[in-house]
Amino acid sequence: xxxxxxxxxxxxxxxxxxxxxxxxxxxxxxxxxxxxxxxxxxxxxxxxxxxxxxxxxxxxxxxxxxxxxxxxxxxxxxxxxxxxxxxxxxxxxxxxxxxxxxxxxxxxxxxx
Amino acid sequence: xxxxxxxxxxxxxxxxxxxxxxxxxxxxxxxxxxxxxxxxxxxxxxxxxxxxxxxxxxxxxxxxxxxxxxxxxxxxxxxxxxxxxxxxxxxxxxxxxxxxxxxxxxxxxxxxxxxx
Lengths: 112, 116
Known about the structure:
Chain A contains no helices and eleven strands.
């Protein structure tokens, strides 16, 4: 059982479309991170959210942390081919010894 | 963030042999970790590399199979011992920068290991 459930697992869209990736858990997280990983590379940290209800924006990417700190979403506006990659959410929870646990990831492909 | 390098970037090894993976950072870091990312799966923490002392292993990982060294604040090694095809995976080191939360980790490029 994945501690952090990500959906969808795979997303293929056209350039210019919007998309949302979800990260859900039944546990409360003290913080949650989003990473992007490209083939042959390690994950790159995009953002950290720590406060329930927090919203952070990074250019065309909007990250939200749920009010109860059990879920998060990543919204991309006007997706570009350069957004293609594996998006991973990761979180730290006292329930799991405050170790960083990762979701299974969402593979995003943006076609031009 | 820091510049993190791993050597080798990839290798093909025969079963029964061992491979040591190096992780080098261009500045001192507070924490270093080793993860495994099996094909089509997410990242799983193997252990925390402790400077000057034995690593702290997660459930399912043991020192005899994955010995780890961390002689200083910028360098760590992970050895995959007595390899089997099930060890085929990407191995990643990550670091925590001084003054940052242990949850904000920066990753190396990974080492892609194939065991035949």
